[in-house]
Amino acid sequence: MPLFSHRSSAVSGGPVSGGPLPSFYSSKPVKPSKPFYSFSSTRTPLPLLAFSFLCLFIGLAGTLFAVYAIRRNQPLPVFHCGKSVDTFRAFYSSDSAKLGDDSNKGLVDRPKLLGFVGIQTGFDSGERRAALRSTWFPSDPEDLLRLEQATGLGFRFVIGKSKDAKKMAMLEEEIEKYRDFMLIDVEEEYLKLPYKTLAFFKAAFKLFEADYYVKADDDIYLRPDRLATLLAKERSDSMTYIGCMKKGPVITDPKLKWYEKSGHLIGNEYFLHAYGPIYVLSAEVVASLAAARNNSLRMFNNEDVTIGSWMLAMNVHHEDNRAICDPRCTPKSIAVWDIPRCSGLCNPASKLKELHKIGMCSKSPTLPPDDV
């Protein structure tokens, strides 16, 4: 039986059966009236229903996003200074308490180091970075931090940017895995190496408080312990430029590799300057570069010549050290590369691994400071 009848009177106390019908009743069939609980207008619930569905949708979306955020691998935060990024800093800070340093809770603005080493690399140098991480450059963030604490040296791969979305995506995957990059805001092009080098020194100075800043290429075999010993030596001159110093004829033929477009400003022979694969600048020198306006410094075609010209203008002390350009591993070698055949190691991806297997390269003892 239905719970109500459309034939019932809508008036309280009205007749149900028997007796004459009131005048407003008709003996003709009428359409059933709407139940008494119906809304008088269908327009009233629409805003309420729409709002309810919107709230439900937002709630479901929020729940799904929370589940996704919890389940996915969370990327470590990075430390920014302007448009330069240190992808390792978050790990450095979070592990300071773990390794006994309670004073570095949270992000440190400029960690104090003996030296900061920027390994210059590019988008097509993935094999070189892989070879380095399998030899002297730690592949694990914890080992990288331990190396920093043992030597006082911070190490990062330094790379610019690319307009190629695929290359940038591959770089992001590598960053996610290793966290050992410094990203700088400059186009990654061989002809723009002087601009990249200046951007590196500016970024490194802002991100790290180091006594020395080292520019190194990704195709050399390096002994971090011996480099630290070299940098720890007492020096009377605060404006210091350390490297394998050289001179040579200025190349003015556009067909040759080391062509110098502005050679007429230099003359027939280059001034004294360090080879490009690795050299060191003291903090006071880098502070001057960091303060310089980008367009105020002359850029030559060759990066090592460009740096050398700035060093002449700044009246620095040139410290020649052949241990950082050794063609073979010796008891005193700090950096090994195939000088003068190649600007770095020839076939570096394979040569790095070969050198690392040689005990004289990887396992010989660190020298006392007086022997470097």
Automatic annotation (TrEMBL):
Its cofactor is Mn(2+). Coiled coil: none annotated. InterPro entries: Glyco_trans_31. It is a single-pass type II membrane protein. It comes from the Eukaryota. Its EC number is 2.4.1.-. Pathway: Protein modification; protein glycosylation. The chain crosses the membrane at residues 48-70. Keywords: Glycosyltransferase, Golgi apparatus, Manganese, Membrane, Signal-anchor, Transferase, Transmembrane, Transmembrane helix. It is found in: Golgi apparatus membrane. Belongs to the glycosyltransferase 31 family. This is Hexosyltransferase. It comes from Hibiscus sabdariffa (roselle). The lineage of its organism: Eukaryota, Viridiplantae, Streptophyta, Embryophyta, Tracheophyta.
